[in-house]
Amino acid sequence: MSKRLTTWLLIILLTSIVLTACSSTPKQIVQYEGDPQMQATITVMYSGGLNFFNKDYGDLFRAKYPNIEVKVIGAWRDVEKVREEQKPDVLLLSYEDYVKLTGEGKLYDLNNMITEDAFNLEGVNQDIIDFLRQSGGGRLYGLPPHFDNQALFYNKDLFDKYNIPYPQDGMTWNEVFQLAKRFPVEDGVSGFKTAHLSSLRYKMETSQGLRSVNRKEMKVTVNTESYKKLFETLVDAHRSSTLEIKDYGEEVYDSFITGKSAMTVDYYYYLNNNIYWAKTERGDDFHLNWDVATAPVGESNSKATPYFIFGNIYTVNADTLEAQAAWELVKFINSEEVARMKSRTTTNSIPTRTDYIYNPEGKRMEIFYKNLNMDWALRENNPKTNIPDNFYVILGAIMDSEFMAASRGDKSIDEALQSIQERGQEELDKQLVEKSKKEDQ
């Protein structure tokens, strides 16, 4: 071989090595299907700690991957601090943290791992997948096995008894309260029950796209015609006893469970914590004949329910040295196999795999997947806000007290809204000053 040819071959070899290194963005080559006998040690963030992780997923995962040791970080406040100091391979993130870490390039891009043959996403609600892709700039960095949404729960026997038509999907709040008014208060029946006024009001605000604060100008904005209509609806329902506002606290069952209220709106967990729990406790003595319709909507956006929220989003740390094993855990937790096993019992949240929601009584559980308003969720879950964390709690208390004053007739609704705006602005200004002082220290 000539010296010139040898030189050219060496140049070509070196060039190919450099190009290969530059083109390999993932730090490891991750296979789509891992070897069940692979050996690795990974660390996962799991809020309940080791015992809860083992109960939820750990024992099942070890049965499939006996040679992968999983360590658990059980409690944290600062996700970024845990990521930097303890370097977990798998992170459980809120939506806010998902957006933040994705934007900073600190999560592993899962697109190359998810292929049609390797991990089937067809059974997962596509609105949720599309939402996460949109949040990740068109790429997917995490998978959530569960999410949450609200529904309108109603007592079919009460509707039948008083010959009142069942609630329909897509009803506005005003239509729901008009329906609730048809139940006879004199019989000890309320048309609608809520545990807390503030939570009900927030649901109504959310459905109508109302914001109590202009986040750009940092101004409280409740003294408006839209809020006036909302307050008029609530005050009218409360004065007529159509609306029952009662926190049952230590009492065993609320009035919907005991058959004294015809309707309530709540998240999916109401099934597990109230309805299924009562059925387990009372057995054959429990006779609630219930079903669900989509949660009430706003008049201007009657085709979408804005109550969608995430639980945990499972992600892989971009700096992991065990990407294959970490992906196997994320994939397993979000798999059809696990969803099928979990569907045999009730849970506090809704599986993203739509075929595996717990439904032993054949109820209309598909409504929890209907009309998810992702555009609203993108806006509402934007973590970039300068409003102090505690402000909305105090504003809610102010709004509650002014509402009750209007409901008693001590104030007009206009006076109540004006007072909310003034008191709320005073509180916001005070908290912003305090927040600024803390940041300067």
Automatic annotation (TrEMBL):
It holds the Pfam family SBP_bac_8. SUPFAM superfamilies: Periplasmic binding protein-like II (SSF53850). It comes from the Bacteria. PROSITE patterns: PROKAR_LIPOPROTEIN. The keyword Cell membrane applies. Keywords: Cell membrane, Lipoprotein, Membrane, Palmitate, Signal, Sugar transport, Transport. Residues 1-20 form the signal peptide. PANTHER family: ARABINOSE-BINDING PROTEIN-RELATED, POLYGALACTURONAN_RHAMNOGALACTURONAN-BINDING PROTEIN YTCQ. This is Multiple sugar transport system substrate-binding protein.
